[in-house]
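Exercise 7. Given the encoded structure of a 391-residue chain, write a plausible sequence.
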């Protein structure tokens, strides 16, 4: 049955690939259609805010379009539908944050922008982690990189990783990560709006626990003592605290086993983790790349890694020794409470600035703006962009 579906899809793609490409059509999706988020969202938001209506024809693909709020200025399609293939095959530009599959057969006139889904990784990726990745994924990744025309990077360190490990030899766009623009430009109005959506009082301080998954699905590593964390944060920083927990999508089916108490708010199904990071006053994570995104805010970040030895031996290698990072890493709850109580903002800021300088961060808050300028050139040519700027 799967073979038949793929065969029919390829026939449809072949037919639609004979139709004219619409030069201003931009086709976007995030995490294979599961959400409206990550860098594709922030590129979209910048375009909608900056350009005249219909200047770009923006099409978003979702697994369940009806579950997503209608946004003026974009058109929604259901992934793998007939309309999905039509829009994809006749778009000038494709933008995504993950690998494409064999069901994207790129045309000569099309342009594929890969935003990837992190500004910098802690866990090794792609060729660097090939031994720990499924062979089927490696095959897809290699094919995808051959289609790619532009790959976004958040820092010099990531650029070097991409050159070595992404099976890609094309242009790397060294202007930062669009999804991090919101963290650079965060303000009180934005914070109030997001807190309101979550039904959180504006007076509350927010602690955010956002760990990654383990391939053995062991839940013991998420044994954070939420009661003690809340109590210790209040003692150290003052104020009333609320704890948000967002688990990796792989853990969605078991999230209630970790968050089933009155001490935390489960935000696992909240689409946009960048919005959550923008309201966060204190982050606790582990091996997730979002710690590097959060570093833009200059706020405290701790790594709760009770399985550090096992993880590095049996899951994936890391690009950094945790002791090299400015973030405080702890192995158990007792150590976490002690480190929170002894947190020194001056020392942390100094170490963070040194680290950001070391990795050569590009995150200045204008990644989406710079990419939109490139989009104009791709769709309309450099001459039209220059003319529009003059007007």
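Solution.
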């Amino acid at each position: 049955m799967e073979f038949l579906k793929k065969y029919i899809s390829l026939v449809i793609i072949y037919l639609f690939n004979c139709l004219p490409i619409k030069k201003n059509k931009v086709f976007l999706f995030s995490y294979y259609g599961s959400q409206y988020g990550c860098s594709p969202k922030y590129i979209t938001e910048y375009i909608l805010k900056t350009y005249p209506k219909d200047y770009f024809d923006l099409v978003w693909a979702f697994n369940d379009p009806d579950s997503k709020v209608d946004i003026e200025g974009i058109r929604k399609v259901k992934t793998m539908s007939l309309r999905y293939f039509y829009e994809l095959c006749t778009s000038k530009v494709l933008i995504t944050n993950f690998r494409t599959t064999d069901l994207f057969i790129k045309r000569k006139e099309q342009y594929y922008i890969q935003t990837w889904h992190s500004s910098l990784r802690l866990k090794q990726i792609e060729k660097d982690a090939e031994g720990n990745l499924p062979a089927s994924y490696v095959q897809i990744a290699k094919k995808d990189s051959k289609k790619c025309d532009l790959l976004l990077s958040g820092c010099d360190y990531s650029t070097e990783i991409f050159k070595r490990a992404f099976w890609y030899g094309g242009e790397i766009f060294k202007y930062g990560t669009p999804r991090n623009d919101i963290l650079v430009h965060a303000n009180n109005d934005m914070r109030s709006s997001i807190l309101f959506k979550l039904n959180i009082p504006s007076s509350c301080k927010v602690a955010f626990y956002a760990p990654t998954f383990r391939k053995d699905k062991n839940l013991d590593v998420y044994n954070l003592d939420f009661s003690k964390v809340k109590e210790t944060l209040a003692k150290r920083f003052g104020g009333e605290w609320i704890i948000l927990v967002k688990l990796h999508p792989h853990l969605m089916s078991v999230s209630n086993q970790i968050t089933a108490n009155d001490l935390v708010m489960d935000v696992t199904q909240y689409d946009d983790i960048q919005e959550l990071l923008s309201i966060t006053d204190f982050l606790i994570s582990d091996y997730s790349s979002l710690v590097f995104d959060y570093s833009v805010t200059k706020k405290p970040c701790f790594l709760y890694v009770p399985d550090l030895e096992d993880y590095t031996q049996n899951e994936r290698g890391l690009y950094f020794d945790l002791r090299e990072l400015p973030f405080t890493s702890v192995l158990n709850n007792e150590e976490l409470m002690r480190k929170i109580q002894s947190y020194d903002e001056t020392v942390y800021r100094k170490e963070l600035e040194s680290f950001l300088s070391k990795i050569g961060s590009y995150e200045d808050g204008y990644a989406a703006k710079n990419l939109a300028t490139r989009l104009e050139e791709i769709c309309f040519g450099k001459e039209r962009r220059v003319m529009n700027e003059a007007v």
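Remark. The mean pLDDT is 93. Students should compare their own answers with the one above.
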